[in-house]
Amino acid sequence: MALGPWADTVTRKLGYHFPLAVKRGYHMHYGMQEGAQLNNWVLDAERGYFLAPMLRGVRLTTGAEFAWRDAPKTPVQLTRAERVAREFFPLAERRDEEPWMGARPCTPDMMPVIGKAPRHEGLWLAFGHAHHGMTLGPVTGRALAEAMTGEKTVIDIAPYRPERFLV
Ligand SMILES: Cc1cc2nc3c(=O)[nH]c(=O)nc-3n(C[C@H](O)[C@H](O)[C@H](O)COP(=O)(O)OP(=O)(O)OC[C@H]3O[C@@H](n4cnc5c(N)ncnc54)[C@H](O)[C@@H]3O)c2cc1C
User: Fold this and answer.
1) What is the secondary structure of 100-112 as a DSSP string?
2) Mean pLDDT, 10 residues at a time, over the chain (167 residues)?
3) What value does the mean pLDDT of the chain take?
4) What is the dihedral of CA 118, 121, 126, 127, to 10 degrees?
5) Whose CA is nearest to atom 27 of ligand 1?
6) Ligand 1 centre from 12 Cα, in Å?
7) Which residue CA neighbors atom 35 of ligand 1 most closely?
8) For residue 152, which of 20, 56, 79, 100 sits 20 to 30 Å off, Cα-Cα?
Protein backbone atom coordinates (compact mmCIF):
# COMPACT_ATOMS: atom_id res chain seq x y z
CA MET A 1 0.00 0.00 0.00
CA ALA A 2 1.82 3.06 -1.31
CA LEU A 3 -0.74 5.85 -1.38
CA GLY A 4 1.51 8.76 -0.40
CA PRO A 5 -0.48 11.57 1.27
CA TRP A 6 -3.66 9.48 0.97
CA ALA A 7 -2.23 6.51 2.88
CA ASP A 8 -4.28 7.20 6.00
CA THR A 9 -7.56 7.06 4.07
CA VAL A 10 -6.96 3.31 3.91
CA THR A 11 -4.91 2.64 7.06
CA ARG A 12 -7.53 4.29 9.30
CA LYS A 13 -10.20 1.98 7.94
CA LEU A 14 -7.94 -0.92 8.90
CA GLY A 15 -7.55 0.44 12.44
CA TYR A 16 -4.02 1.91 12.17
CA HIS A 17 -3.67 5.51 13.32
CA PHE A 18 -0.46 6.77 11.78
CA PRO A 19 0.40 10.40 12.54
CA LEU A 20 0.58 11.46 8.91
CA ALA A 21 0.46 15.11 7.88
CA VAL A 22 1.38 16.98 4.73
CA LYS A 23 3.54 19.86 3.64
CA ARG A 24 1.99 21.31 0.54
CA GLY A 25 3.72 23.10 -2.35
CA TYR A 26 2.71 25.10 -5.40
CA HIS A 27 3.95 25.38 -9.00
CA MET A 28 3.12 27.82 -11.81
CA HIS A 29 4.42 28.16 -15.38
CA TYR A 30 5.25 31.54 -16.92
CA GLY A 31 6.13 32.86 -20.34
CA MET A 32 9.32 34.87 -20.78
CA GLN A 33 9.55 38.42 -21.95
CA GLU A 34 10.87 38.83 -25.48
CA GLY A 35 14.55 37.96 -25.81
CA ALA A 36 14.78 36.36 -22.37
CA GLN A 37 15.86 32.75 -21.93
CA LEU A 38 16.44 30.61 -18.86
CA ASN A 39 19.14 28.05 -19.62
CA ASN A 40 19.42 26.31 -16.28
CA TRP A 41 17.72 25.74 -12.94
CA VAL A 42 18.01 28.53 -10.39
CA LEU A 43 17.51 28.14 -6.65
CA ASP A 44 17.11 31.34 -4.66
CA ALA A 45 17.79 29.75 -1.28
CA GLU A 46 17.69 33.05 0.59
CA ARG A 47 14.16 33.89 -0.49
CA GLY A 48 12.86 30.36 -0.95
CA TYR A 49 11.81 29.69 -4.52
CA PHE A 50 13.09 27.79 -7.54
CA LEU A 51 12.92 28.47 -11.29
CA ALA A 52 13.21 25.71 -13.88
CA PRO A 53 13.09 25.85 -17.68
CA MET A 54 10.33 23.49 -18.86
CA LEU A 55 8.58 22.83 -22.18
CA ARG A 56 5.58 24.81 -20.94
CA GLY A 57 7.68 27.82 -19.92
CA VAL A 58 9.53 28.75 -16.74
CA ARG A 59 8.24 26.81 -13.75
CA LEU A 60 8.31 28.60 -10.42
CA THR A 61 8.08 26.41 -7.32
CA THR A 62 7.45 27.51 -3.73
CA GLY A 63 8.52 26.27 -0.31
CA ALA A 64 6.40 24.18 2.05
CA GLU A 65 2.95 25.09 3.36
CA PHE A 66 1.51 23.51 6.51
CA ALA A 67 -2.17 22.88 5.84
CA TRP A 68 -4.73 20.08 5.76
CA ARG A 69 -4.28 17.82 2.75
CA ASP A 70 -7.77 18.49 1.38
CA ALA A 71 -8.13 22.15 2.35
CA PRO A 72 -8.68 24.61 -0.51
CA LYS A 73 -5.53 25.98 -2.13
CA THR A 74 -4.00 29.06 -0.50
CA PRO A 75 -1.14 29.98 -2.86
CA VAL A 76 0.08 32.95 -0.82
CA GLN A 77 3.70 31.84 -1.13
CA LEU A 78 3.37 31.69 -4.90
CA THR A 79 2.21 35.29 -5.14
CA ARG A 80 5.08 36.40 -2.90
CA ALA A 81 7.70 34.29 -4.70
CA GLU A 82 6.47 35.51 -8.08
CA ARG A 83 6.95 39.13 -6.97
CA VAL A 84 10.54 38.41 -5.91
CA ALA A 85 11.33 36.25 -8.96
CA ARG A 86 10.20 39.03 -11.27
CA GLU A 87 12.94 41.24 -9.80
CA PHE A 88 15.46 38.60 -10.80
CA PHE A 89 14.18 37.28 -14.13
CA PRO A 90 11.86 38.82 -16.77
CA LEU A 91 8.91 36.47 -16.34
CA ALA A 92 5.88 37.21 -18.55
CA GLU A 93 2.30 35.90 -18.26
CA ARG A 94 1.06 33.03 -16.07
CA ARG A 95 0.38 29.99 -18.27
CA ASP A 96 -1.70 27.77 -15.98
CA GLU A 97 -5.31 28.54 -15.18
CA GLU A 98 -4.60 27.93 -11.51
CA PRO A 99 -1.51 26.95 -9.50
CA TRP A 100 -0.63 23.25 -9.32
CA MET A 101 -0.57 22.01 -5.73
CA GLY A 102 1.00 18.85 -4.34
CA ALA A 103 1.23 17.38 -0.84
CA ARG A 104 4.34 15.84 0.70
CA PRO A 105 3.40 12.98 3.06
CA CYS A 106 5.25 13.53 6.36
CA THR A 107 5.61 11.59 9.61
CA PRO A 108 6.78 13.15 12.93
CA ASP A 109 10.35 11.84 12.49
CA MET A 110 10.35 12.72 8.76
CA MET A 111 11.18 9.11 7.94
CA PRO A 112 8.99 6.85 5.82
CA VAL A 113 6.89 3.92 6.98
CA ILE A 114 8.19 0.78 5.26
CA GLY A 115 7.34 -2.76 6.27
CA LYS A 116 4.72 -5.35 7.08
CA ALA A 117 1.34 -4.18 8.35
CA PRO A 118 1.31 -5.43 11.96
CA ARG A 119 -2.20 -6.92 11.98
CA HIS A 120 -2.93 -7.79 8.34
CA GLU A 121 -1.19 -10.78 6.85
CA GLY A 122 0.03 -10.11 3.31
CA LEU A 123 -0.27 -6.31 3.53
CA TRP A 124 2.91 -4.24 3.20
CA LEU A 125 3.21 -0.50 3.71
CA ALA A 126 5.42 2.09 2.01
CA PHE A 127 4.52 5.75 2.44
CA GLY A 128 5.59 8.95 4.20
CA HIS A 129 8.63 9.83 2.09
CA ALA A 130 8.02 13.54 2.67
CA HIS A 131 10.29 15.78 0.57
CA HIS A 132 12.28 12.88 -0.86
CA GLY A 133 9.87 10.37 -2.32
CA MET A 134 10.99 10.75 -5.90
CA THR A 135 14.60 10.21 -4.85
CA LEU A 136 13.95 7.43 -2.34
CA GLY A 137 11.06 5.65 -4.10
CA PRO A 138 13.21 3.34 -6.22
CA VAL A 139 15.26 2.04 -3.29
CA THR A 140 12.13 1.68 -1.17
CA GLY A 141 10.56 -0.34 -4.00
CA ARG A 142 13.58 -2.58 -4.20
CA ALA A 143 13.87 -3.08 -0.44
CA LEU A 144 10.17 -3.79 -0.16
CA ALA A 145 10.23 -6.34 -2.98
CA GLU A 146 13.17 -8.06 -1.29
CA ALA A 147 11.45 -8.07 2.10
CA MET A 148 8.22 -9.43 0.61
CA THR A 149 10.05 -12.30 -1.05
CA GLY A 150 12.16 -13.07 2.01
CA GLU A 151 15.47 -11.90 0.56
CA LYS A 152 18.13 -9.85 2.35
CA THR A 153 17.17 -6.21 1.83
CA VAL A 154 19.52 -3.76 0.14
CA ILE A 155 19.18 -1.50 3.20
CA ASP A 156 18.08 -2.30 6.74
CA ILE A 157 14.39 -1.34 6.82
CA ALA A 158 13.97 -1.92 10.57
CA PRO A 159 14.23 1.83 11.41
CA TYR A 160 11.17 2.44 9.21
CA ARG A 161 8.96 -0.23 10.77
CA PRO A 162 5.28 0.80 11.03
CA GLU A 163 5.12 -0.24 14.71
CA ARG A 164 7.13 2.81 15.83
CA PHE A 165 4.01 4.96 15.48
CA LEU A 166 1.42 2.50 16.73
CA VAL A 167 0.36 2.07 20.34
C1 LIG B 1 5.75 20.35 -4.19
C2 LIG B 1 6.51 19.07 -4.01
C3 LIG B 1 7.86 19.02 -4.29
C4 LIG B 1 8.57 17.84 -4.13
N5 LIG B 1 9.90 17.82 -4.45
C6 LIG B 1 10.59 16.66 -4.36
C7 LIG B 1 11.96 16.60 -4.73
O8 LIG B 1 12.55 17.61 -5.14
N9 LIG B 1 12.60 15.40 -4.61
C10 LIG B 1 12.00 14.29 -4.16
O11 LIG B 1 12.63 13.25 -4.08
N12 LIG B 1 10.70 14.31 -3.80
C13 LIG B 1 9.99 15.47 -3.88
N14 LIG B 1 8.67 15.52 -3.51
C15 LIG B 1 8.11 14.39 -2.78
C16 LIG B 1 7.60 13.32 -3.65
O17 LIG B 1 6.81 13.84 -4.70
C18 LIG B 1 6.75 12.38 -2.80
O19 LIG B 1 7.46 12.00 -1.64
C20 LIG B 1 6.46 11.14 -3.62
O21 LIG B 1 5.64 11.50 -4.72
C22 LIG B 1 5.76 10.11 -2.80
O23 LIG B 1 5.59 9.00 -3.66
P24 LIG B 1 4.52 7.94 -3.38
O25 LIG B 1 4.54 6.99 -4.52
O26 LIG B 1 4.69 7.44 -1.99
O27 LIG B 1 3.14 8.76 -3.39
P28 LIG B 1 2.46 9.56 -4.58
O29 LIG B 1 3.42 9.91 -5.64
O30 LIG B 1 1.68 10.68 -3.93
O31 LIG B 1 1.45 8.48 -5.18
C32 LIG B 1 0.30 8.05 -4.46
C33 LIG B 1 -0.69 7.59 -5.51
O34 LIG B 1 -1.78 6.97 -4.87
C35 LIG B 1 -2.95 7.30 -5.60
N36 LIG B 1 -4.11 7.05 -4.74
C37 LIG B 1 -4.57 7.79 -3.70
N38 LIG B 1 -5.64 7.22 -3.12
C39 LIG B 1 -5.88 6.08 -3.83
C40 LIG B 1 -6.86 5.04 -3.73
N41 LIG B 1 -7.80 5.06 -2.76
N42 LIG B 1 -6.80 4.03 -4.60
C43 LIG B 1 -5.85 3.98 -5.57
N44 LIG B 1 -4.89 4.94 -5.72
C45 LIG B 1 -4.91 5.97 -4.87
C46 LIG B 1 -2.76 8.75 -5.98
O47 LIG B 1 -3.56 9.13 -7.06
C48 LIG B 1 -1.28 8.75 -6.34
O49 LIG B 1 -1.06 8.45 -7.69
C50 LIG B 1 7.92 16.68 -3.68
C51 LIG B 1 6.56 16.72 -3.41
C52 LIG B 1 5.84 17.91 -3.57
C53 LIG B 1 4.38 17.92 -3.28
Assistant:
1) EEEEEEE-TTS--
2) 96 96 98 96 94 97 96 97 96 98 97 97 97 96 97 97 92
3) 96
4) -60
5) 4
6) 19
7) 3
8) 20
Other Cβ atoms within 10 Å of 33 Cβ, number = 12
pLDDT of residue 41: 96
- Which residues, 6+ apart, have CB-to-CB distance to 152 below 8 Å? 146
Among the atoms of ligand 1, which is closest to the Cα of residue 9? 41
Query: Would you state the torsion angle of the CA atoms of residues 61, 66, 67, 72, taken in this order, to the nearest 10 degrees?
Result: -20
- How far does residue 102's CA lie from ligand 1's centre (Å)? 8
* Residue identifier of the C-alpha nearest atom 16 of ligand 1: 133
pLDDT tens for each residue of 61-87? 999 999 999 999 999 999 999 999 999
CATH 3.30.9.10-classified regions of the chain: 21-105
Q: Calculate the CA 110 to chain-centre distance.
A: 12
Instruction: Say if ligand 1 is within 6 A of residue 59 CB.
Output: no
Assigned fold of 21-105: D-Amino Acid Oxidase; Chain A, domain 2 (3.30.9)
Nearest CA to ligand 1 atom 1: 25
